[in-house]
Amino acid sequence: MKIGRIDKGIGVFELDDGSTIPMGEMHVVISTDSYTVHPLFFPGGDIGKLAAVGSINDVVVMGAKPVAMLDAIVVEEGFPMKSLETIMNSMLRVLTEEGVALLGGDVKVMPRGGVDGVVITTTCIGVTDKVITDSGLVPGDSIVISGTIAEHGATIMALQAGLEVEGELKSDCEPLTKVIEIAKSIGEIHAAKDITRGGLASSLNELAEKSNVTILVDEDKIPISENVRVYCEMLGIDPLVLASEGRALIGIPSSRAEELVRELRKAGYRQATIIGRVVDRSRYNVLLETVAGGRRILEKPLGEIVPRIC
Amino acid sequence: MLKENSMEILRKFRDRKLIQAVSKSIEKIAKKLDYVRIMHVCGTHEHTITFFGLRSLLPDNVELIAGPGCPVCIVPAREVDEAIEIVFSGIRVYTYGDMYRVPGTKMSLADARSEGADVKVVYGFNDAIRLHMKDRKKSVFFAVGFETTAPTLAAFISRRLIPDDLMILPSFRLTVPIMKYILSSFDINIDGIICPGHVSTIVGASAWSFIPRISGIPAVVAGFEPLDVMLAVFSILKMILEGKPRLVNEYSRAVSWRGNITAKRYVREVFYRADGEWRGIGRVKRSRLLLRKRFKHLDARSRLSVSVDTGPEFKPGCRCADIILGKAKPTDCPLFMRACTPDRPQGPCMVSSEGTCSIWAKYGGYERIQWHYD
What we know:
Chain A contains 7 helices and 14 strands. Chain A is an alpha+beta fold. In chain A, helix 3 (151-160) packs across helix 6 and helix 4 (177-186) crosses helix 7 (254-266).
């Protein structure tokens, strides 16, 4: 056994959403992440929900059924108990709904100023008989997205900019368990990934780079809610680089893609749609046909996300 | 709320079918023309062109060139050094996020802050005033920008709304004089100009009437949506073909002939025009705004006796100077996306979000995409 991997499992070098431990016919899938968000409470969730959903999704997009979670919470001295309770309850609600057991955890208090409110680390463990990676795309696949992008990122950016968002914007923070279940039932998933930090632009680039293919995307097809569009326009931010916390990209042979979209829509994911297709590797990871019909490279997000001033 | 309305307008100006139709018309005219070089002088125009992939919708013999359209990129290194000297003397400096990271001859204000200096990033002058009222600390506002940014500050000054102990370090530059400079240069060949829309809302379309009159080339004041830019290109090509260069205001939904009279009055009252250095370009006549005598008490330069040495404007190898003038593309620079990236910018054009290098790096403006997948 070498450091970074167990047998033929997925380890640290793959930089996938999670790692796997082969156990005979089965695989244990495990993923860990630390969660910080400002503000801690936002329309559509709070840091507790985010911490539970985030690690669950990392396990889910690797094709696994999440079964257990561990958490570690660091709280700033003087942080209101009531708020901490609310955060814990949101976390537990997600776990209950998903049937994921909280097996253990740890709470530490740090001196005032040592940490910004609350930081939560969660580790999620799942099991599967078939692992889905983010590197298995082949030419001829279609890329299906499970819903509108940038809801979480736009909500947080707008709140940080001091804008009122209640009733207008809402984080999309939610588990992807059902989405991947539906996709698995259709079969032949070549790759899956949840869109998180760096947004759609980052996830597509990773998928293409790791699979050694080029992805062609039609910007017109990317589902974006009207309110997110308006806020992004106002703040001068590209929604393609804003985070989601409950959206998946699924690579599936084009012959099955329409069926997947149909099934997802039937199950309530009404904005699910095909946004692009996979072709032989060219010099670029992702090429975008823009809303205006022009063509450009869709780059990985670089530098900080700064609102454009003029 | 006006948002439904404004999104509807945006949608029309981004309509793929309309834009493709204009692209076809452009192609038709371009067939009858030689190589055409069209320059714009606004970072936001470059953003629109790159972000929407408009260069891929133009024929091979029509080139869109980014001129000096970034107000942050062209602030001379020595003026950044002045701000740095001020902040190291214990006075707080307020500045915009873009300016904060632009290197002077030795370091940027961001570097100064990491060494403990009191630099605060603000979105506008009113933020600086708000923070100043709260903290009551002797401070300086590092005022950069084109004709668009100067009026807000001028209005505050004119109405005597500047708190005590808040001084101004003016580093404004003007786009009309730089356009005159470019058009009179012998080594820059331009066949048409897309005039900056935002600046024109202030100065008025009439400010550009010298372009066809003196240089004999067409000029179009254009908005910032893809259809605006495509129509501007179409209009320029048409005027070239007909041999009748004129000034056209495509952005009439925002720009009037005379501009914003009130804004111009404030600027005239508070500032006078002086010759000014532009980073990578040199001295440009009457291109800089300085505080008039009766407002000298607000001027950080005269109150603090700032003195800095001159030093190199750019790092070795950096081609920002040529890129600012449209003589080179970012991809012509040996540092672009190698030593110089948005995460580790080496020159001002990569630092500022209005800079051509930064826009190309973030939105894949490297080249016309060969798209053989249809």
